[in-house]
Amino acid sequence: MSEVIDVLVRCLFVVLAFLTMPLLVGQMEHKAMAHMQGRVGPMAAGGFHGWAQLVADGVKFVQKESITPVAADRRVFELAPAVALVPYLVAMLAIPLGPFFGHDVLIGHDLDLGLFFVLAAMSVGVLGTLMGGLGSGNKYSYIGGMRVAAQLMSYELPMVLAAASVAMLAGTLSLVGIADAFEPWWLLVQLPGLVVFFVAGLAELQRPPFDAPLADAELVMGPLTEYGGMRFAMFLLAEYAGIVVLSALTTVLFLGGWAGPWSDQLGWAWTLLKIVGVSFLVIWARVAYPRLREDQVNVLAWKVLVPLALAQVTLTTLVVVW
Amino acid sequence: MNGYGKGLWQGLAVTWKNLTRRSVTAGYPDVQPDLPPRSRGVIALQEENCTSCMLCARECPSWCITIDAHKEVIPAETEGGRDRSQNVLDQFDIDYSICMYCSICIEVCPFDALHWSPEFAYAEGDLKDLTHDMNRLRTWMDTVPPPQALDPGADQGKELQAHERRHATEIPPGAQESGER
To answer: Which of A21, A22, A84, A178 could potentially form a cystine with A240 if both were Cys, beta carbons 3.0 to 4.6 Å apart?
Structure first.
């Protein structure tokens, strides 16, 4: 009986994190991006610095009509938002938050193949956008979908290679094991891997500067062109959940997870702090850099990131064998 | 390869600088704006100064001013003198739905009957209500600020200079600073 309750509490906790963390990142994006552009961002909703803006947005999205275009492939079109969103929830299940006041590591479920599982879930999330693009019956969506496919093909490889390098160094695929095995000098040895992983992750989430599939100046809104109301909101939520998952994964793999002073007690806080920090970097990259052209996106992947990731794997092999 | 990747750092630096600086956004509906003098908000009409000369209506590039007037006879004050006639405004409308705030009417008015007022919040639900008639234009006069003081050492304007030259002997020292009309 207690096992069932334990599982339920863990699931509840993961769902809670899934519902709040993306909103926090979204609010941070509202405010940080505004100030980086010399604005103040939302100020009215909720009274204090517009803290309730995303709640108000959610209410607005719920009220809107969900339209399915006649030319759309109905099943695919309606399924796509769920395919985009749910994998990130699943991925969060396997990401550890660290020790909680002397208790065990906070995690939905500690998988032996945690790293493999999370990476697989992340790439399924991208399929949602691809489905939206191909199922909308719209030329812009279709071109956007093709770009999503190209981007997915290009960036999956460097991302997995960079992650593999860490797994080799730690000698395990378990995320808890990797974070436990972390030692500060890894930061230096794994630096190229960190950069490759972060950049490839940005590209996989189609976050600016890698938002060529959405490129609103060329493709209206890419695969999301035909979506409105709650379905669009789900895609948006998926984007921010994706940021959380990417940041959490970067933290656990490359930044030592809960490594820090008093990690036995405050490990979870360290992890959260690092996740927020990496999320800030994701937002910062969006504000600071212009969108890459479609060919530049692929050039960056195949001519820069893949060689860099391969070099990183070679370096890690040398370190491990030594 | 000179400075390769420099742009990446510059992008981060510029955005970071903005992030740490206080933003200058004005919180308009909550905080009233501090408008500079001569702001072009709305045109006010000082009816007594208007001679219905029609210059403003004719110079208006968007033809948004409508003027109608009639002549009134002022009987001669002295015995055997000549009666004088005066133009009296019947109608003076400015249609703010087509006004482009070019200020030509105000520049061209020979008798200073038109003035800029910094009031700007006169949006209407109906397009027709944007046509302000004589009475409404008159009420804007209350919001016209006094003319801006001259910069120190600035020219006073040709009329005043000529006036002062002519009356140089009559004006007592110290009264020159009252350059306002």
So the answer is: A22
So what's the ipTM on this one? Answer: 0.77
Q: Dig out the tokens for B24 from the structure.
A: 């200058």
Residues B54, B67: contact at Cβ < 8 Å? yes
Contact A289, B8 (CB under 8 A): yes
Which residues in chain A touch residue B25, judged by CB atoms under 8 angstroms apart? Answer: 38-40
Instruction: Enumerate residues 9 to 68 of chain B having a beta carbon within 8 A of any beta carbon in chain A.
Output: 11-12, 14-16, 18-19, 21, 23-25, 27
DSSP H helices in chain B = 6-20, 55-59, 104-108, 134-139, 158-166
Gap between the Cα atoms of B161 and B165, Å rounded: 6
**Tens digit of pLDDT for each residue in A272-313?**
899 999 999 999 999 999 888 888 889 999 999 999 999 999
Residue A261 forms contact with B (CB below 8 Å): no
Test the A interface: residue of B4, B6, B9, B15 with most A CBs within 10 Å: B15
Please state, in angstroms and rounded to a whole number, the distance separating the CA atoms of residues B143 and B18.
37
Q: What are phi and psi of B5, to 5 degrees?
A: 90, 5
| CB neighbourhood size of B93 (10 A) | 18
At residue B41, what is the residue type?
Answer: G
**DSSP track, A165-177:** HHHHHHT-S-HHH
Q: What are phi and psi of B70, to 5 degrees?
A: -135, 165
Q: Do A288 and B11 touch (CB under 8 A)?
A: yes
The DSSP bridge partners found for residue B74 are B84
Alpha helices in B33-133 (DSSP H): 55-59, 104-108
Type of residue found at A20: T
pTM, rounded to two decimals: 0.77
Rounded to an integer, the average pLDDT of A234-249 is 91
- For residues A178 and A113, the answer to whether their CB atoms sit within 8 Å is no
Residue from A161, A119, A123 nearest A308 by CA: A161
